[in-house]
Design a protein that fits this description.
This protein is an alpha+beta fold. The chain contains twelve helices and seven strands. The strands form two sheets. Strands 2-4-5-7-6 form a five-stranded mixed beta sheet. A hairpin with a 3-residue loop joins strand 6 and strand 7. The protein is rod-shaped, with a radius of gyration of 38 Å. About 0% of the residues have low confidence.
Length: about 350
Amino acid sequence: MHPILAKPRYFGLYLFVFVQAGLLLGELMLRDGEATRPQVWAVAVPLMLLHAWSCLASWYLCRATRLDDTGLGRLLAVHLAAGTAAALLLLGLGHAWTRLLALHEGLRGAPSLFAAHRALVFGVALLLFSLAVAVHYVLLAMAASRAAEKRAWELRLLAQEAELRVLRAQIDPHFLFNSLNSIASLTAADPRTAREMCLRLADFLRRSLRQGAREAIPLAEELALVESYLAVEMIRFGERLRFERRVDAAAAAVPVPPLLLQPLVENAIRHGIAGLVAPGTVRVEAGLRDGRLRVTVENDCDAESPRPGDGRRGHGIGLANVRRRLAARYGGAATLDIRRGPVTFRVEIVLPVS
């Protein structure tokens, strides 16, 4: 649809400009004649409103002769021919209009007034057509710019979604590999426990596949996944693994990326609890502060245990994965902070509430 006709306020402004052009044309016609202002306005203003429709048609001509693929000579020739045709059409309409006006007693001189200023009307009509062509090219350029910007954003979103899918897909094999190793170690020593672990693992995988396909899930559902994962690990560690959860009710409803906390809890067990002789605790806390969601995963650890990223195989993969997922989804609006105490390891995630 024509961009000026698509919005009533644009069309109203467009007609206002042509009314002003008609008033100005009337003032020019007054300079060398004895007609009154109402007489010249009765001729000039309706003619300019009629010409407004011819100028609207230049939009389609501009679309057919784009600036980026049309030579300058052809461009000028096409629009000059179209402008001349529109101006000649206006002269014909002016002749008919003034003869109609002459039927009124006070406007009997309208035909002679128009005949005396045909050259002026022709020049103003050609000028307005040229201005309309220029405006339409500007509108085309703006539309092309908006379309290019939209395409750029769409491509950027597609790239982010692809990256998120890749990062999310890295989680399942990593966890599955560790869990199967645990089951394998139990099959000979304790087959019943190994069977129970298989059932709990199947329950976790079923939940993770169902929730992982969504863009975001409430934090409460993410914590349910974490507890399903811990149910698997508690079979292996027994009383050596404890879990504490302190989550505000308001924070539990905030949407978060699925499988965001599971890699952190897995790290807490694999690189923290697994290295302890005494029982250790994994603590998850969440709350809202200053309009942002703050989630912490803390675990007990041995003071001599390696730090993430120190070169130990597999150490820090989960943290790097979570950091990259946050960057891809939230940009700089989300942070991940790591703090190592003498006997604790703490990861804090801060997300915008959306």
